[in-house]
Write a structure and sequence with these properties.
- This protein is an alpha+beta fold.
- It has 3 helices and 8 strands, in the order βαβββαβαβββ.
- It has helices at residues 13-24, 62-70, 84-93, and strands at 2-9, 27-34, 39-46, 49-56, 73-80, 104-105, 111-115, 125-129.
- It has an 8-stranded mixed β-sheet.
- The longest helix is centred in the N-terminal third of the chain and has 12 residues, at 13-24.
- It starts with a strand and ends with a strand.
- The site of cobalt (II) ion (CO) has 6 residues, from β1 and β5.
Length: 132
């Protein structure tokens, strides 16, 4: 398992990408809109570490509710795993609470699944498997 990216909830992908670029030199390497999740994302390469900026595209989506309740900031940590179905099963037997009970398609064509923050010290965890 390795850290794949850090997800940040933001009000504006454009504004936050500019902010991060200004002090870190991080550049946008991928942009995507995920209509089902009602988010727009941009991935920034910050010296080999990826930041995922997530902006809501509707006022009633989960990310909009997160922003309303908690404001901008850390949203999730994403770990890359070689076999997501297996990692989900292992996480469940280790006491984690999956939000997604099976892998689904996420940004960049990767298979993803989220684990509930309640069972991981308040941090929303995303498991990511590269498309094979
Ligand atoms: Co993510």
């Amino acid at each position: 398992m390795r850290l794949d990216h850090v997800g940040l909830a933001v009000r504006s992908v454009e504004a936050s990408a500019k902010t991060f670029a200004a002090f870190s030199g991080a550049r946008v390497v991928h942009r995507e809109e995920l209509p089902r999740e009602r988010v727009r994302v941009a991935f920034l390469d910050a010296g080999g570490v990826l930041l995922e900026l997530l902006e809501p595209t509707a006022e009633d989506g989960p990310l909009a509710r997160f922003l309303a309740a908690r404001g901008e900031g850390l949203h999730h940590l994403a770990f890359e795993v070689p076999d997501l179905a297996r990692a989900l099963a292992e996480a469940t037997s280790a006491g984690q609470r999956p939000i997604d009970d099976r892998p689904r398609l996420g940004a960049r064509g990767r298979l993803i699944a989220f684990l509930h923050p309640e069972a991981s010290h308040g941090v929303l965890v995303e498991l990511v498997q590269r498309a094979s």
